[in-house]
Amino acid sequence: MIGYYVHHHGAGHARRAAAVSALLGDELVGLGSGGPPPCWAGGAWIELARDDEAPDIVATEVARRGAWHWVPAGHAGYAGRMQAMATWIAAAHPAAVVVDVSVEVTVLVELLGVPAATVVLPGERTDRAHRLALDTASLVLAPWTPPDPAGWCRAHGGRAVVTGG
């Protein structure tokens, strides 16, 4: 079984998850907010609490001095979603989890001893948080074509796959 974390901002994450679910069926378990994407053909869907709604968010504390991208201090939804993912991983023992996209979820999955295949979007990803996720992930997936695909793959230590898009 493989998990697939679907970020709740933007539609591309959900479209990629639905496409993979058509191939893997019940072997794919979705994790995300707002229900499964349209055309979801995978197995179970683990509904996660939202982590981006006020009043719990303190804007100055979400990045934690640049170490993370989104760790809202004292936010019940954030704590609940991370706990739900950790509980599922501990109980289900997935072979891997695709993370589309989240620095924090990539690190959580790897900390729990499960390989994370993290999706990377186009653009410069050299800030501390991105470097942590890219250094931590077992596999780096690019659903787009970088200007120098071979160089991009080498830069990620042979753990990168460019799928185009």
Poorly predicted spans: none
**Which fold name is given in CATH as the topology?**
Rossmann fold
Estimate the global geometry from the Cα principal axes: globular
Q: What is the tally of beta strands?
A: 7
SS-based class: alpha/beta
Proportion of helical residues: 25-40%
- Listing every helix as H and every strand as E from the N terminus to the C terminus, the arrangement reads EHEEHEHEHEHE
Beta-strand level of the residues, as a percent range?
15-25%
- First and last CA, distance: 25 Å
Can you put this structure into words, describing what you see?
- With 165 residues, the protein is of the alpha/beta class.
- The protein has one domain: Rossmann fold (3-Layer(aba) Sandwich), CATH 3.40.50.
- Helices cover 33% and strands 18% of the residues.
- It has five helices and seven strands.
- The protein has helices at 12-24, 76-92, 103-111, 128-136, 149-155; strands spanning 2-6, 28-32, 45-47, 96-100, 116-119, 139-142, 160-162.
- Strands 3-2-1-4-5-6-7 form a seven-stranded parallel sheet, sandwiched between helices.
- Helix 3 (103-111) runs parallel beside helix 4.
- The longest helix is centred in the middle third of the chain and has 17 residues, at 76-92.
- The radius of gyration is 15 Å and the shape is globular.
